[in-house]
């Protein structure tokens, strides 16, 4: 609808692509959808009307475009559906599920679908996407322009023509439904500390407290504290003030809050080989044997033979 500067209606049909509409009073609308020419300015108002004002020729504003597509949630997820925020450069209508496709740029996901587009007004839409099936994949939401998205002046996305408003450079989600595992743990006695190295098969978080550890001593072994540092794949675990004689092993606790970045909880852990603490003599109290200070790591059988040969 076109008004002159006095508010009189000059023309009240929608502009059609390539149309040429002569309005009363000598004003003319012509050209592609949304473009105007004639001895007047056209200024869209909030109710999508035009008010003609004598002056230079104006277009009714640039065509709408997709400004950005961003994630609503965390990048790594194991969720069955995710949401994207789609922001246009101006208010548009005509946005529905058929304007989008889901692009799986890597991984094994299949069956991802656009399930919902939020209320059709304004500059912003929230689009819900099901993440389908499969253990891992990267999914992105793209806009496919078929000119059904238009601004209030009926100017289609990217201007007239399919494809010129496409958008395929938005943020992605990394869907991860595979639980992490602790796959290698090594340890060595350094002074009175047992220094372990724990390797997971992917980045994990929450591996940060003694409750995340399963420390198993044998013999008379004791310790005071355990500290965890490093990560997010390889961590150092230092067990301090170790005393006594025997061995110590370490595993990561699957009953803890350790999880990958998609919140899949730790599924399993290897256990380290036993780290010998002091001399682990099997029966070190036979008559005539003097038990040395338990600081040298020797196997019991070897130590027993050596000592008998010197007695
Ligand atoms: Ca277009
Ligand atoms: Ca994982
Ligand atoms: Ca923890």
Could you provide a short overview of the structure?
This protein is mainly beta and 311 residues long.
What is the topology?
Layout: E1 2-3, E2 9-11, E3 21-22, E4 28-29, E5 41-44, E6 50-53, E7 66-71, E8 76-77, E9 81-88, E10 92-93, E11 100-107, E12 113-117, E13 124-130, E14 136-143, E15 150-151, E16 172-176, E17 181-190, E18 193-200, E19 204-205, E20 213-217, E21 225-230, E22 234-240, E23 246-252, E24 259-260, E25 268-269, E26 275-277, H1 300-310
The chain binds calcium ion (CA) (3 copies).
What integer value in Å does the Rg equal? 35 Å
CATH topological fold name of the largest domain:
Immunoglobulin-like
Bound molecules: calcium ion
**Range of helix content:** under 10%
- Strands, count: 26
What is the succession of H and E elements? EEEEEEEEEEEEEEEEEEEEEEEEEEH
First and last CA, distance? 113 Å
Strand order of the largest sheet: 21-22-18-17-25
Describe the model.
This protein is mainly beta and 311 residues long. The protein has four domains: 2-53, no CATH class; 66-176, Immunoglobulin-like, CATH 2.60.40; 181-277, Immunoglobulin-like; 281-311, no CATH class. Helices cover 4% and strands 39% of the residues. It has one helix at 300-310, and strands at 2-3, 9-11, 21-22, 28-29, 41-44, 50-53, 66-71, 76-77, 81-88, 92-93, 100-107, 113-117, 124-130, 136-143, 150-151, 172-176, 181-190, 193-200, 204-205, 213-217, 225-230, 234-240, 246-252, 259-260, 268-269, 275-277. The strands form eight sheets. A five-stranded mixed β-sheet has the order 21-22-18-17-25, with no helix packed on it. It has a four-stranded mixed β-sheet with strand order 2-1-6-5, with no helix packed on it. A four-stranded antiparallel β-sheet has the order 7-9-13-12, with no helix packed on it. Strand 1 and strand 2 form a beta hairpin. The radius of gyration is 35 Å and the shape is rod-shaped. Residues 1-59 and 283-311 have low confidence and may be disordered. The site of one calcium ion has 10 residues, from loops. One calcium ion binds at residues 206, 208-209, 212, 256-257.
């Amino acid at each position: 609808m076109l008004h002159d500067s006095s508010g009189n209606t000059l023309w009240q049909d929608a502009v059609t692509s390539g149309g040429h509409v002569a309005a009363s009073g000598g004003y003319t609308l012509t050209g592609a959808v949304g473009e105007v020419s004639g001895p007047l300015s056209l200024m869209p108002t909030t109710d999508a009307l035009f008010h003609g004002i004598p002056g230079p020729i104006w277009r009714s504003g640039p065509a709408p475009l997709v400004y950005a597509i961003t994630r609503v949630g965390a990048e790594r997820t194991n969720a069955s559906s995710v949401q994207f925020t789609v922001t246009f450069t101006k208010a548009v209508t005509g946005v529905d599920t058929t304007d989008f496709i889901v692009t799986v740029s890597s991984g094994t996901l299949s069956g991802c679908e656009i399930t919902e587009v939020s209320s059709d007004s304004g500059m912003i839409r929230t689009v819900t996407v099901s993440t389908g099936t499969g253990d891992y994949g990267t999914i992105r939401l793209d806009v496919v322009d078929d000119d059904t998205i238009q601004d209030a002046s009926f100017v289609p996305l990217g201007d007239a023509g399919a494809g010129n408003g496409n958008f395929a450079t938005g943020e992605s989600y990394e869907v991860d439904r595979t639980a992490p595992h602790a796959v290698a743990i090594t340890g060595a006695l350094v002074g009175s500390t047992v220094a372990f190295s724990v390797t997971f098969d992917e980045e994990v978080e929450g591996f940060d407290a003694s409750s995340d550890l399963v420390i198993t001593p044998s013999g008379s072994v004791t310790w005071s504290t355990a500290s965890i540092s490093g990560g997010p794949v390889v961590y150092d675990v230092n067990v301090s003030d170790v005393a006594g004689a025997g061995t110590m092993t370490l595993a990561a606790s699957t009953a803890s809050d350790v999880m990958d970045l998609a919140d899949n909880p730790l599924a399993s852990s290897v256990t380290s080989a036993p780290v010998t603490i002091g001399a682990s003599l099997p029966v070190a109290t036979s008559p005539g044997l003097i038990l040395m200070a338990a600081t040298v790591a020797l196997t019991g059988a070897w130590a027993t033979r050596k000592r008998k040969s010197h007695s």
